[in-house]
Design brief:
Elements lengths: L6 E6 L2 H10 L4 E8 L2 E7 L7 E6 L8 H13 L4 E6 L2 H10 L3 E8 L5 E6 L5 E6 L6
Parallel strand pairs: 1-4, 5-8
Antiparallel strand pairs: 2-3, 3-4, 6-7, 7-8
Length: about 140
């Protein structure tokens, strides 16, 4: 079986700050922007990488969930416990500086973990946890 990850999704509670954030901080390009008002599905992704996308979807637009479930989804999204994504870069320090310059809520500054991963974490405007992992060839 030949599969690849094409699109992953994160919820948003307001499309305009979500779109601005993902364009400004990781520098993603807009691929699609469907819907209107607060109910918009926005597909973004790395420039020059059309095979990898992130769908920013309304957090509670699913008509099959109850009002109580909708409230739970919105609460969990705001706390950063519902949606999360891990991005990767070869220059974590420069990327982290860009995140800080955008006034994103920093959850964790860059750190090398005992198991060999160097990463940082922050929240997007909806509260989603975004981790950025440094791609390392050697860990000493």
């Amino acid at each position: 079986m030949d599969l690849t990850l094409h699109t992953s999704a994160l919820p948003h509670d307001d499309p305009d700050p979500a779109l601005a954030f993902y364009r400004e901080v990781p520098g993603f390009e807009v691929r699609e922007d469907v819907g209107r008002g607060g109910t918009r599905w926005i597909t973004v992704g790395p420039v020059g990488r059309p095979d990898t996308s992130l769908l920013l979807a309304p957090a509670a637009a699913d008509t099959s969930i109850t009002d109580a479930e909708r409230d739970t989804v919105l609460e969990m999204t705001a706390k950063g416990t519902y949606g999360r994504i891990v991005l990767a870069t070869r220059d974590l320090d420069a990327t982290f500086a860009r995140v800080q310059a955008a006034d994103a809520e920093v959850v964790q500054e860059p750190v090398l973990r005992p198991y060999g991963v160097r990463d940082c974490a922050f929240r997007d405007p909806a509260g989603n946890l975004v981790r950025i992992r440094e791609l390392l060839s050697d860990i000493g």
